[in-house]
Amino acid sequence: MSTRVVVVIGAGGIGQAIARRVGSxxxxxxxxxxxxxxxxxxxxxxxxxxxxxxxxxxxxSRDSVRTxxxxxxxxxxxxxxxxTAGLSPVQASAAAILAVDxxxxxxxxxxxxxVIAPGGAGLVVSSMAGHMRALAPLTIEQEHxxxxxxxxxxxxxxxxxxxxxxxxxxxxxxxxRANHLRVSAAAVTWGDRGARVNSISPGIILxxxxxxxxxxxxxxxxxxxxxxxxxxxxxTTDEVATAAAYLLNAGFVTGSDLLIDxxxxxxxxxxxxxxx
Length: 276
Prior knowledge:
Layout: E1 4-9, H1 13-22, E2 27-32, H2 35-47, E3 51-56, H3 62-75, E4 77-83, H4 94-112, E5 116-125, H5 140-148, H6 168-192, E6 196-202, H7 208-213, H8 220-228, H9 237-249, E7 257-260, H10 264-269
Parallel strand pairs: 1-2, 1-4, 2-3, 4-5, 5-6, 6-7
Helix pairs in contact: 1-9, 3-4, 4-6, 5-6
């Protein structure tokens, strides 16, 4: 088994697609909170010829993520870290989304920033929601706070309090914006180790999570996004994996976010779709 380790956190469709794309000839350490999903994903990857190890993880728990990082380092050189785990607005409360999608990403950046190998690269799968302006614009001070506040103190920020974040949709958009800011800040400390880290912001990708979103009463908004986008269709997990592979191998790119949404944000900015 190769001593070059690819860690993929989140065993869903996007995580599996990226693992297939970048895991060849390496040990893939696949992690997820759901043991059944984890076992099924590992079986599929192994059937495709990949060398796979599995590990449970709860990204909302620093101890759990630290244990995963230590397990990865014990397998060999951690050359790639891909974080895809998250909750959507129809799946969880605002508090749960902030804990997983915002703080969970910050914890992964912290813990894997201590084990990533020189020359290695990380990738956070965020969302086009981080580019939307449905929320009130953040001040420079708020952006700095989201980027630089110690992870364990993030939920104490007033802009993340229950009075400020009143629904799961707002929590999701704010979390994804925070992902971009945390990745940009982490690029500095990861760079001290000779490593890079970026994020990617997919639009509507046909995954089980997207199907959940498009099955609720408010799904007409998603259909409008698809219709008015330049691509005029949903994206595929393989297209996300192609973009992910680029960022994981683009040696001069770090601290950046790549929007891969078929032109939805362009349609919003061009006035074809409402901003809210």
